[in-house]
Specification:
The chain is of the alpha/beta class. The protein folds into three domains: 5-81; 95-143, Arc Repressor Mutant, subunit A (Orthogonal Bundle), CATH 1.10.10.10; 171-318, 2-Layer Sandwich (Nucleotidyltransferase, domain 5). It contains ten helices and seven strands. The strands form two sheets. It has a five-stranded mixed sheet with strand order 5-4-3-6-7, sandwiched between helices. Strand 4 and strand 5 (200-206) form a beta hairpin. Helix 1 crosses helix 2 (39-47).
Length: 326
């Protein structure tokens, strides 16, 4: 059972790596639901692909586990995704919950164990603090000869395209490396692009792609245009940092955070196409020029000015309209 957020100590306020990993999977589910999939189909779509754990290895997460994490997040936010604290002591099922488990399985054989335990709390059979571990209930029901095998269904792998109908439904963020000034110094521009209108919302420049640069860009984005529904990040050092996930998860509207992978070609393709445009328009003309100030602040102002030009030009993906018009 997850520890209530109100009972956690102040020292434990920073989410653990496991909680952040679970939040990223919950974000994928919520994004798929927003794209039109049902809750069950969205869970199955995420469960169909191996996920890279905190140890770097790939794991397959079951639909039941993903459903449970989604419920915990909806109830307590990212704090609800913290791993349960086990006492280490054996837990014997109370006779009243034993009776309830058997009666519910007899009446509803397809009900999952987490669902039955939730019913027990709702009907006052046990309190939330008395909820036993699911594995204990599973072993009890199996020993009692009750059906515990989950039903197999065809997996749904369609994650739907990034074609959001309204502005701020999805923010695409990516870093583009380039060189600038007479000394050809290394710089990186972090662009924030609106998926629906292709509007270039914000850009920041740093010496490397770090979490500090992303968080500064995110803060500037929020100050300029406010909250967004979800955000897609191509994988990079600043994007996969734990602080990035923590900050996004604790925004007031808890937007899903989607990290780019091979099965998200739409977001990656749009960013790559924009990067080619930005390179052709402005970035390729910056290295080696004595009149270009390679200071990050100066380059940031230059690219923010470029954003006004980009946003006013016709865009092929918008039927000839400009991002500003869209």
């Amino acid at each position: 059972m997850n520890e209530p957020a109100s009972e956690r100590t102040e020292d434990a306020r920073r989410p653990t790596a496991k909680a952040i990993f679970r939040y990223l999977l919950v974000s994928q589910i919520r994004h798929a639901m927003a794209a039109g999939l049902t809750r069950a189909d969205a869970v199955r779509a995420v469960a169909a692909h191996p996920q890279q754990g905190v140890d770097g290895k790939e794991y397959r997460i079951s639909c039941r586990t993903l459903q449970r994490w989604l419920q915990f997040f909806e109830r307590d936010g990212i704090d609800g995704l913290e791993p349960a604290v086990r006492s280490g002591q054996p837990y014997a099922l109370d006779p009243k919950i034993q009776t309830f488990l058997i009666e519910e399985k007899d009446q509803d054989a397809d009900a999952s164990i987490p669902e039955i335990l939730s019913r027990a709390v709702e009907r006052g059979v046990i309190t939330r603090d008395e909820v036993p571990d699911r594995s204990t209930a599973y072993r009890f029901l199996r020993a009692a000869g009750k059906p515990v095998a989950r039903r197999r269904r065809p997996s749904e792998t369609d994650m739907r395209r990034f074609a959001h109908p309204h502005r701020m439904n999805m923010i695409l963020a990516d870093g583009k490396h380039f060189r600038a000034g007479p000394k050809r110094l290394r710089r990186v521009a972090l662009f924030f692009l609106d998926d629906c209108t292709r509007f270039l919302l914000h850009v920041v420049v740093g010496t490397s792609e770090t979490r500090k640069l992303f968080l500064r860009g995110l803060f500037g984005l929020l100050c300029r245009v406010g909250l967004f529904d979800r955000i897609y990040l191509d994988r990079g050092p600043g994007f996969i940092a734990e602080d990035t996930a923590i900050v996004v998860a604790r925004l007031p509207n808890h937007p899903p955070l989607i990290l780019g992978r091979a099965r998200y070609p739409e977001g990656h393709g749009k960013l790559e196409r924009f990067n080619r445009t930005a390179k052709a328009d402005v970035l390729r003309g910056l290295p080696g020029r004595p009149d270009v100030d390679a200071d990050c602040t100066s380059l940031e102002l230059r690219l923010q000015h470029y954003a006004t030009r980009y946003n006013s030009r016709p865009h092929a993906a918008l039927a000839g309209r400009s991002p500003q018009e869209a």
